[in-house]
Write a structure and sequence with these properties.
- The protein has 23 helices and 20 strands.
- The strands form 5 sheets. A 5-stranded mixed sheet has the order 2-4-5-7-6, covered by helices on one side. Strands 10-9-11-12-13 form a 5-stranded parallel sheet, with helices on both faces. It has a 5-stranded mixed sheet with strand order 15-17-18-20-19, with helices on one face.
- It is α/β, with parallel strands linked by helices.
- α1 runs parallel beside α4 and α19 runs antiparallel to α20.
- The chain is elongated, with a radius of gyration of 55 Å.
- The relative contact order is 0.04.
C-alpha cells in the first residue's frame, strides 16, 4: 500500500518492536542474572525440607544456572545482531527453564502437596510484569508452566491417593488465577508502553524536524549574509570614493552620499552580527587565540571609537594596570565584544556624560569593565539583556532602536573564550558591563609585541575588511529625539508634518517635500499634537514606531481633536500584514506608505491626499453655507407668515375701527351727559352707568391698541432722543403698577437713538406692566425686581429688560409675539401688547427677543439702530 498513514504506522510499529526487543534483552539479562543468584541460594530451603533430595536438587539448580549463563552470554555478546524474535525465544526459554526445574522438583517430592508450587506463581508473575511481553507471549509462558505443573503432579506416585486431589485443585486454581491476572496486567502494560513510545517517537520526530529547520534557517541566514555583504561592500566602495574626491561636491549630493554611506554601514553591521550568530550556531566559529598585550589592545580599540563619543561631547577614559601584561585570546572576536559594549555606552549616555574603560589582570583571570553614566537598565530587564532579540523598553534607551543582537553575540563570544560577562545597572545612574576571561599563563610582552597586539587597521588592499571594521564602528545618532522644535523648512501653499524618530529617514522624506510644501518636523510622537495645533498642517506623514507615543496612539489623539477633521494621515511603516493595516485604519490613518518606497510614490500619495483634504474642506464649507442658507430661508418663511398674519389682522382692524369708533364716541358722550344729571338718578342707575362707562373705556383701549397695530407709522414724527428718556416716561405712567417693585437701571452714558419717542415709550409701558403682573403672584415679602440695562454695541443700541418672576414656559415662548395670544384669564387681556411691541421694533428697523434667565424670570432684549453721529458709549 502507498497510503502515507499506513506507511507511517508500519514504520512506527517496526520502531516499537525494535525498541521492545532492546528493552526485553536488557530485562532478560538482568532477570537471568538475578535468577542465577537465586537458584543456588534455594539450597538452604532444600536442606530443611528435603535433606535426602539435596544432591539431586543441587544438581538441578546448577544445571539451571549453566543454561541461564549460556542465555545471558548469548544475549550480551550478540546484543547488536540479535533480532527481536530471537530475543523473545530466548526469553520464553528462560521462563521454561525456571518453571520446568521447579516442576521436576515437584515431581521428585510430594507432587500436588509439594511446597515448590509457590515458585511457579512467583516466576509467572515476575516474568509477566517486569518484562515487556505481549499478551500472547505471556499466555504461552503461563500455559506451558501450568501444563508442566499438571504433568508433574499427575506423574507423581502420590497422585493415586485421593486425599491429594483437593490440594491439587487448589494449587491449579491459584496458578490459573495468577495467569489471568498476569494476562490482564500484560495487556494494559503493553498498551501503556506503546502509547509512551508513540509519544516519545512523535516528539523525537518533531525534534529532528526542528533541528533540520533550524539548520536550514541557519544555513539560509549564512548564505544570505554572505550574498549581501558583497554588494553592500561594492556600494560602500564607490560612495567612499566620491566622498573623498578633492574637486568637491554640491551640498545636496554630499548629503545624499553621506545618507547612503551611513545606512549601508548600518546594514552591513547588522549582517555581520547575524552572520557571526549563525556561525556560532553551526559551530563554525573557530577561535584563533594568541597572546595579546592587554593595555595596548584596550587603548587601541577605545581610540578607534573615540570620535563617536566626541560627537556627543562624552569623556572616555582608560584605566589599567601594568602595561606589559598579556592574556591569550582571539583579538578579532574580543574586539567585536568591546566595540559592541562601547557603542552601546555611547548611544545610551546623554551628552556631556562619562565612559570609563578599566582592565585588571590577576593570576586567575583578567577583567575588562565598561562603565557609563547613561540612562541605565530597569531591574526587570537586567536578566534578559543578553537574550537574543531582546530590547529594553520603558526608558529613554528604546529611542535608539535595534534588533537585540549585539549583547547576545558578545556573551557567546566571551563564553567561547571560557569566560563570562555580567552587568550591573541603576536607572538614571548608569550601567557597568564586566568581562571575565581566564588568564592562562602570566606573561610579559615587549614593546614590539605590544604594538603587534593593537587592532591593525585594514590595508588598502583589503577593502572588504576595511568596510567590515567601519561597519562595526558605526551607529545611529538620534540626538534630535530630545529636540522639541526642529526647523520648519520649504515653502508652499500646503503645510506637511513629517514625524519620524530616525534622523536619516526623516531628513530624506523632508528633502523630497521641501520643493513643493512647507514642512514641519517632529522626532517624538508626544510632540505631534502640539505641532498640529500650532501649524495646522493639511497632512501628517507619521512613522509607526516612535518614542513617546507610537503612530497608532498619535492617530487616535489627532482624530479626537476638533481642529483636525480635515487632516490627512499617511502612515509610514515596514509592516505589510493585513492585521496591521486594519488596526491603523481603525485608529484613523488615511493611507499607508510601506518601506521601502520610491520618491515618486511619496510625492504622489502626499499630493493626492492633500488634494482630497482640500476637496473635503471645500465640501464642508459649502455644506455649512447650505445649512446656514436653509436656516435663513426657514426664518424668512416664518417672518413672511407672521407678516401676512399681521397684514391680515391690520386690514381687519382698519375696517372695524371706523365702524366701532363712531358708536363708541356717541355712547361715551351720552354717558358724560348722564353723569351731569347723576344727582337726580337713583343708585341703581348710577351703578349701571358706571358699568357701562367701564365697558366703553375697555372698548376704547382695545380700539387704541388696534389703531396702533394697524397704523404703527402714524403716531408722531421721528426725533433723536436718549433711550433713557422713553423709559423714564414709561416708568412715570406705570408708577401705580410698579409700587413695591425694585427698579435697577443702568444706562451708562447716554445711548442716543432715532425714532418715535411715543412708540418706544409704549413698548416700555407694556414690558413694565407685564413684568409687574408676572411678579404679582410671588409670596408676600418676597423680593420683586426689574433690571434694565442699555449699551451701545457696534451700530446698535441693546436694551436688556429682565425680572425675577416665574419666567415664560418653554412650550409657549415661540408664540409670545403672536397677535391675540395670551395666557391670562378671559377678560384680563387681549394678547395684543407684545405683538404691538414687535411691530413697533420692526418699524424702527430693530428687533425684540425673549428668553428665560438661568436663575428665574424672563428677559427681553431690544435692539434698534443708534442715531447717526450720536454719542455711542456703553
Amino acid at each position: 500500500m502507498s497510503d502515507p498513514a499506513f506507511i507511517e504506522r508500519e514504520q512506527l510499529l517496526a520502531a516499537y518492536r525494535e525498541e521492545e526487543g532492546r528493552r526485553l534483552s536488557r530485562g532478560l539479562i538482568i532477570g537471568n542474572l538475578i535468577g542465577m543468584f537465586g537458584m543456588p541460594s534455594g539450597v538452604v530451603l532444600d536442606y530443611f525440607l528435603y535433606p535426602d533430595k539435596l544432591p539431586q536438587f543441587l544438581t538441578i539448580r546448577i544445571a539451571v544456572d549453566v543454561i541461564l549463563a549460556v542465555i545471558v552470554a548469548a544475549l550480551y555478546l550478540r546484543r547488536d545482531t540479535f533480532r527481536t524474535p530471537a530475543i523473545k525465544v530466548l526469553g520464553i526459554l528462560s521462563a521454561f527453564v525456571f518453571n520446568f526445574a521447579f516442576c521436576l522438583m515437584i515431581y521428585l517430592t510430594n507432587g500436588a502437596t509439594s511446597p515448590y508450587c509457590m515458585a511457579l506463581n512467583l516466576i509467572i508473575t515476575v516474568w509477566a510484569v517486569l518484562l515487556p511481553w505481549t499478551v500472547i507471549e505471556t499466555a504461552v509462558i503461563s500455559a506451558g508452566s501450568l501444563i508442566a505443573y499438571i504433568i508433574a503432579c499427575v506423574a507423581n506416585p502420590t497422585f493415586a491417593n485421593p486425599a491429594s486431589y483437593p490440594l491439587f485443585a487448589y494449587n491449579s486454581s491459584f496458578i490459573a488465577i495468577t495467569i489471568f491476572v498476569c494476562l490482564g496486567t500484560t495487556f494494559f502494560l503493553s498498551r501503556a508502553r506503546f502509547q509512551d513510545f508513540r509519544l516519545r517517537h512523535q516528539l523525537d520526530v518533531q525534534n529532528r524536524e526542528l533541528q533540520d529547520l533550524d539548520r536550514v534557517k541557519t544555513q539560509f541566514f549564512s548564505n544570505v549574509s554572505h550574498e549581501l555583504r558583497t554588494p553592500l561592500t561594492l556600494i560602500l566602495g564607490p560612495v567612499e570614493s566620491q566622498l573623498s574626491r578633492d574637486d568637491g561636491l554640491d551640498a545636496r549630493t554630499h548629503e545624499s552620499l553621506l545618507l547612503i554611506h551611513r545606512n549601508a554601514l548600518r546594514l552591513l553591521k547588522l549582517i555581520n552580527d547575524l552572520l557571526d550568530l549563525t556561525r556560532l550556531d553551526q559551530g563554525l566559529e573557530v577561535l584563533r587565540k594568541k597572546p595579546v598585550q592587554i593595555d595596548s589592545f584596550v587603548r587601541g580599540i577605545v581610540e578607534s571609537i573615540r570620535h563617536l563619543g566626541l560627537s556627543k561631547r562624552l569623556k572616555i577614559r582608560v584605566e589599567g594596570g601594568r602595561t606589559d601584561q598579556e592574556i591569550t585570546m582571539d583579538p578579532a572576536r574580543m574586539e567585536k565584544v568591546l566595540i559592541n559594549l562601547l557603542t552601546n555606552a555611547i548611544k545610551y549616555t546623554p551628552a556631556g556624560g562619562m565612559i570609563a574603560v578599566r582592565w585588571n589582570r590577576t593570576e586567575e583571570e583578567a577583567t575588562v569593565e565598561v562603565e557609563d553614566t547613561g540612562v541605565g537598565i530597569p531591574p526587570e530587564d537586567l536578566s534578559k539583556v543578553f537574550d537574543r532579540f531582546h530590547q529594553v523598553r520603558g526608558n529613554a534607551a528604546n529611542q535608539n532602536q535595534g534588533v537585540g543582537i549585539g549583547l547576545a553575540l558578545a556573551k557567546e563570544l566571551v563564553g567561547q573564550h571560557g569566560g563570562r560577562i555580567d552587568v550591573q545597572s541603576e536607572v538614571g545612574r548608569g550601567t557597568l558591563f564586566r568581562i571575565h576571561l581566564p588568564a592562562g599563563e602570566i606573561g610579559e610582552s615587549s614593546g614590539a609585541e605590544a604594538e603587534k597586539s593593537r587592532p591593525e587597521p585594514a590595508s588598502e588592499e583589503e577593502p572588504f575588511e576595511k568596510a567590515f571594521r567601519s561597519a562595526d564602528r558605526s551607529w545611529r545618532d538620534n540626538s534630535e529625539l530630545g529636540v522639541a522644535d526642529l526647523p520648519v523648512v520649504g515653502a508652499g501653499d500646503h503645510v506637511v508634518l513629517v514625524a519620524d524618530d530616525e534622523t536619516d529617514m526623516r531628513r530624506y522624506v523632508v528633502s523630497l517635500l521641501t520643493e513643493t510644501y512647507r514642512v514641519v518636523q517632529a522626532a517624538n510622537g508626544s510632540d505631534v499634537a502640539g505641532l498640529v495645533r500650532k501649524h495646522r498642517p493639511g497632512l501628517v506623514l507619521l512613522d509607526w514606531m516612535m518614542p513617546g507615543k507610537d503612530g497608532l496612539a498619535v492617530c487616535r489623539e489627532l482624530r479626537e481633536m476638533p481642529e483636525s477633521h480635515d487632516l490627512k494621515i499617511l502612515m509610514l511603516t515596514a509592516r505589510i500584514d493585513e492585521k496591521s493595516k486594519i488596526e491603523a485604519l481603525q485608529s484613523g490613518a488615511d493611507d499607508f506608505l510601506t518601506k521601502p518606497f520610491s520618491s515618486v510614490e511619496v510625492k504622489t500619495r502626499v499630493t493626492n491626499l492633500l488634494r482630497a483634504g482640500q476637496l473635503q474642506k471645500e465640501m464642508r464649507g459649502r455644506n455649512t453655507e447650505l445649512t446656514e442658507t436653509l436656516e435663513k430661508l426657514r426664518r424668512t418663511e416664518s417672518m413672511l407668515i407672521q407678516s401676512e398674519k399681521m397684514n391680515a389682522i391690520g386690514s381687519l382692524s382698519a375696517g372695524l375701527l371706523h365702524e366701532i369708533n363712531n358708536p363708541l364716541n356717541y355712547t361715551l358722550t351720552a354717558i358724560s351727559f348722564a353723569r351731569r344729571m347723576q344727582n337726580s338718578l337713583s343708585e341703581d342707575v348710577k351703578e349701571v352707568l358706571a358699568d357701562v362707562e367701564e365697558g366703553m373705556t375697555r372698548i376704547r383701549d382695545v380700539i387704541t391698541h388696534l389703531k396702533d397695530f394697524a397704523y404703527p407709522e402714524k403716531p408722531g414724527a421721528e426725533s433723536i432722543f436718549p433711550i433713557e428718556q422713553a423709559f423714564s416716561a414709561a416708568r412715570k405712567l406705570t408708577a401705580d403698577e410698579l409700587d413695591g417693585i425694585q427698579i435697577d437701571v443702568d444706562f451708562g452714558d447716554n445711548v442716543i437713538v432715532r425714532g418715535q419717542n411715543t412708540q418706544l415709550t409704549h413698548v416700555f409701558i407694556n414690558l413694565l406692566s407685564n413684568a409687574a403682573k408676572a411678579m404679582a403672584g410671588r409670596p408676600p415679602g418676597a423680593r420683586r425686581a426689574i433690571a434694565v440695562k442699555a449699551r451701545a454695541v457696534d451700530e446698535m443700541a441693546l436694551v436688556e429688560f429682565s425680572d425675577n418672576g416665574p419666567g415664560i414656559p418653554e412650550d409657549i415662548i415661540n408664540r409670545i409675539f403672536e397677535p391675540f395670544f395670551t395666557t391670562r384669564d378671559v377678560g384680563k387681556g387681549m394678547g395684543m401688547g407684545l405683538s404691538i411691541c414687535h411691530t413697533i421694533m420692526e418699524t424702527h428697523q430693530g428687533s425684540i427677543r425673549v428668553g428665560n434667565r438661568g436663575e428665574g424670570g424672563a428677559v427681553f432684549t431690544l435692539s434698534l439702530p443708534l442715531a447717526a453721529g450720536a454719542l455711542k458709549l456703553c
